[in-house]
Amino acid sequence: MKAFRAHGKLLISAEYMVLHGSKALAVPLQAGQILRRIRSENRSTFSWEATYGTDVWFSVSYDPSSLAILKTSDQSKAENLRTLIRACIELAPSFQQELFTWVVETDLEFSPHSGFGSSSTLTALLAEWAEVNPLDLHYLTSEGSGYDVACAVAEQPIIYWLRNGDPHYQHVKFNPPFADQLYFVWLGTKQNTRAHLVQMAEQLDPGYDEILHFNKLSKRMIDAKELNEFQQLMEEHEDRLSALLNLEKVSASRFPDLPGVVKSLGAWGGDFVLIASDTDPDLLLTYLNEKGYTTHFRYKDLVYYAGTPE
Q1: Sheet holding 296-298, edge to edge
Q2: What's the distance, CA 98 to chain centroid?
Q3: What is the distance of C-alpha 24 from the center of its chain?
Q4: Residues 152 and 9 sit within 8 Å (Cβ to Cβ)
Q5: Chain mean pLDDT for the chain
């Protein structure tokens, strides 16, 4: 048996704008997804079982020769997985033989409804197994920017950008001295993030000055040393993007009386937000719980670094 592991993700800056070339700050998460290969005793069937905790949330069996779906708990997920497997075979034809040899079990370390990256971690896991470039696999099967797949294989936070359609990323040191005052809060709504981001990005037509402005915002957020400076950058980011998207800011729609500053992460209106607050943590969490936002994390409890961050 061999296991592969990939990290979840959150996009901190330049949502939507990253598809137009802006540099985005993104963080890999401690929680991710694990893929285990187990030697198969039945070469006429390729079986896949996905678990979250003690629950099986998806299962499928394919004909390993044709990838016809023999049995599944979810037809749509089975077709999406088949698309990924076929893309792996397109990039590495010898991968077809793997389907006759192994049974697969995956273990998701976060809820599949959370928006932490069940799809992007799956892409990265299959790419590692097939020994192909994860971003090549991503672009064969998805229209998103690919930052989430880069996070899945990253060792610490990254800056991610597209140039002439080609992806680039580099690790950055984003472990601010005010990290204890940063919180990630789930809004309780699962967006189809990739599809939504692409749809909204297509409605934008930012000029070079706007693209450059979000580049600078991302860099300034990385470099910020004081909480109030970071909060100002969050507010500037929200104001600028709200005007471009013609969408209401989450501070107005959900947190008008928040004791701190809130910023949408990824697709607006769903998944997670970032809160920066110097309010007593117990008071802040009480405020969030009373509003019904009971899934929340401290920055250092969620973001992944390989080793001790500087």
Answers
A1: 261-264, 272-276, 182-186, 296-298
A2: 27
A3: 13
A4: yes
A5: 93
We find that the CATH architecture of domain 2-170 is: 2-Layer Sandwich (3.30)
Which token pair is 176? 């601010």
Structure confidence at residue 2 (pLDDT): 81
252 contacts 235 by C-beta, under 8 angstroms = no
pLDDT of 115 reads: 86
Domain 174-302 has CATH 3.30.70.890: yes
**Alpha-carbon distance 16 to 198, whole Å?**
7
Give pLDDT tens digits for 15-73: 999 999 999 999 999 999 999 999 999 999 999 999 999 999 999 999 999 999 999 99
CA nearest neighbour of 125 among 143, 107, 139: 107
Cβ contact 90:140 at 8 Å: yes
What is the pLDDT, as a whole number, of residue 191? Answer: 56
Q: How many CB atoms lie within 10 A of CB 112?
A: 17
CA dihedral 265, 271, 274, 280 (to 10 degrees): 180
> Is the pLDDT score of 116 beyond 90?
yes
User: Which residues are paired to 51 by β-bridges?
Assistant: 56, 107
Domain ranges of the chain: 2-170, 174-302
Angle at 152 between CA 174 and CA 217, to 5 degrees: 35
| CA nearest to 28, candidates 147, 111, 184, 195 | 147
Taking only the tens place, the pLDDT of each residue in 197-233 is: 666 766 788 888 999 999 999 999 999 999 999 999 9
Checking DSSP bridges between strand 261-264 and strand 46-52, what pairing results, if any?
A: unpaired
In degrees and rounded to multiples of 5, residue 282 shows phi and psi of -65, -40
pLDDT tens digit string along 253-285? 999 999 999 999 988 877 899 999 999 999 999
Q: What stretch of H or E contains 207?
A: none
Q: Which of 151, 137, 145 is CA-nearest to residue 6?
A: 151
Within a 10 A sphere around the Cβ of 155, how many other Cβ atoms? 12
